[in-house]
Design goal:
single chain, TIM Barrel, 4 domains, binds 3-methyl-2-oxobutanoic acid, binds zinc ion
């Protein structure tokens, strides 16, 4: 039987750290559920010491997602490790992932420590982690720029302390496949206790080599690869999960390894991530890009029509891409909608279906033909995972040239209606100014993008915004056949998220105050 490669997904940790990719707790939970359905072996859920929100996300994922291992990141210091464990202890299969930099560059300029000190810190951290949790991963940050003798020494020492996985990160995306192979061979030859652990790699994509390096590492003995959906991550990103998995599947002749990934879930997972973050992959992105299976040139089309194998090394269906078919129209009933969602892999509760059906009818009145991609947009719009504090009842705008544009907005909050008109540099900016005046939230628009979903003049416009409220950026999304309506609702989505985050933070802080005063009174 083929050897198994452990797929360690770090979309919610390393991926989420990248610009524009931040997610709130509910969004992380949605992603975690989908990663579970995708079949990943390990979900790195976050870095609990980094913020209260990250802590909560790890805790909620640890409480809910039972099959995969749930990992949390911690620097090699006591507070980080204890905080990680506080969030992780609810997991069925918890893992503490602790790391420290080992290259001389990092030791000298970042840590200002000697090699001996870092060795001691690493051992102490693994010892502490092991006293809390059986499953401990150690990462030697910037391993590929680390002196190899020292890397062998530190790896041997942390294994002796009880580490169960040793991760060799190419933190700055510097290595090339042949060099990485040498590093892994050296570790396997020189570290006497290396057979007691799983060897892992974690590659960044600064030179566009993250996937190639990961595959070379597997051939050199790595049995865990760390990767992210769509390759998101720090700077140029991490190795893309979908590319590694499909390379292993398509080139099984040369890479005879197995993974637990249900490849037909790949596209859905990729789309979910893009829809949550508003960060879309480029059209020519391998496996999940819009053009990944499109044959444009006449010669290619002719070949594919004669036999798919001429130009197709895998089928779109194998990664979950289906031919979009016309599905429903305004005479379709609730039952037909429910059935269609089920065929698409979504099981809706009664309340969710009611909401989706209302949105569907509204859309079907404007648009004769409703496609699967339209239904996905409805799903994203209708099933908001945060409370809708403000709801948009009306937006009316007038573009202005040479004068300023104006917009009138009507919002509802708890049964109360608010109306406001404002001017702005364009109808969208005017609508945003009116929303700001009603809600009292002053958002700074960091990013605005619009794309069309589906085809033809009646296509839906989907708007994504990234809005900064007091230094924290929130993503908003909405789709409509009217782009000013979509823009206003996307902005309001971000406003509602910011309000929800504020309320949650206040509730968490109150809870912590209550717990600490309980502790204080019970200890006196
Ligand atoms: O890139 C890196 O070195 C990391 C470690 C924390 C594993 O993300
Ligand atoms: Zn990383």
């Amino acid at each position: 039987m083929a050897e198994r490669i452990i797929i360690f997904d770090t979309t919610l940790r390393d991926g989420e750290q990248s610009p524009g990719c931040s997610m709130n707790v509910e969004e992380k939970l949605r992603m975690a559920r989908q990663l579970d359905a995708l079949g990943v072996d390990v979900i790195e859920a976050g870095f609990p010491i980094s913020s209260d929100e990250d802590f909560e996300a790890v805790k909620r994922i640890a409480q809910e997602i039972r099959r995969p291992i749930i990992a949390a990141l911690a620097r090699a210091v006591r507070e980080d490790i204890e905080r990680a464990w506080e969030a992780l202890c609810y997991a069925e299969r918890p893992r503490i992932h602790t790391f420290i930099a080992t290259s001389d560059i990092h030791l000298q300029y970042k840590l200002r420590k000697t090699r001996e000190q870092v060795l001691e810190d690493a051992c102490r951290a693994v010892r502490l982690a092991k006293s809390l949790c059986d499953d401990v991963e150690f990462s030697a940050e910037d391993a590929t720029r680390t002196d190899l003798d020292y890397l062998c020494q530190i790896v041997e020492a942390v294994i002796a302390e009880g580490a169960t996985t040793i991760n060799i990160p190419d933190t700055v995306g510097y290595t090339i496949p042949s060099e990485f192979v040498t590093i892994l061979h050296t570790l396997r030859e020189r570290v006497p206790n290396i057979d007691r652990v799983t060897l892992s790699v974690h590659c960044h994509n600064d030179l566009g080599l993250a996937v190639a390096n990961s595959l070379a590492a597997i051939q050199a003995g790595a049995r865990q690869v760390e990767c992210t959906i769509n390759g998101i991550g720090e700077r140029a990103g991490n190795a893309a999960l979908e590319e590694i998995v499909m390379a292993l599947k398509v080139r099984h002749d040369l890479l005879p390894y197995e993974t637990g990934i249900h490849t037909e879930q790949i596209y859905k997972t990729s789309q979910l991530l893009s829809n949550i973050t508003g960060v879309f992959v480029q059209p020519n992105k391998a496996i999940v890009g819009r053009n990944a299976f499109a044959h444009e040139s006449g010669i290619h089309q002719d070949g594919v029509l004669k036999h798919k194998l001429t130009y197709e090394i895998m089928t779109p269906e194998s990664v979950g891409i289906k031919q979009s078919t016309l599905v429903l129209g305004k005479h379709s009933g609730r039952h037909a909608l429910q059935k269609k969602f089920e065929d698409m892999g979504y099981r809706l509760s009664r309340a969710e279906l009611d909401k989706a059906y209302k949105l569907f009818m509204k859309l079907a009145e404007r648009k004769k033909e409703v496609y699967e991609e339209d239904l996905l947009a409805i799903l994203q719009d209708g099933l908001r995972d945060i409370p809708e504090t403000y709801t948009l009842r009306l937006v009316q705008s007038l573009a202005g040239n040479p004068k300023a544009a104006t917009a009138t907005v009507v919002l509802e909050r708890g049964g109360q209606t608010f109306i406001q008109s404002a001017t702005g540099d364009g109808p969208v900016a005017a609508a945003y100014a009116a929303i700001d005046q009603i809600t009292g939230m002053r958002g700074q628009l960091v990013d605005y993008s619009i794309r069309s979903i589906g085809r033809g003049a009646e296509a839906l416009g989907e708007v994504f915004v990234h809005v900064d409220f007091d230094g924290k950026v929130f993503t908003g999304r909405a789709a409509s056949t009217d782009i000013v309506d979509a823009s206003a609702r996307a902005y309001l989505h971000a406003v509602n998220k910011a309000l929800h985050a504020r309320e949650r933070l206040a509730a968490l802080q109150a809870e912590e105050r209550a717990t600490s005063s309980d502790g204080a009174s019970s200890s006196t």
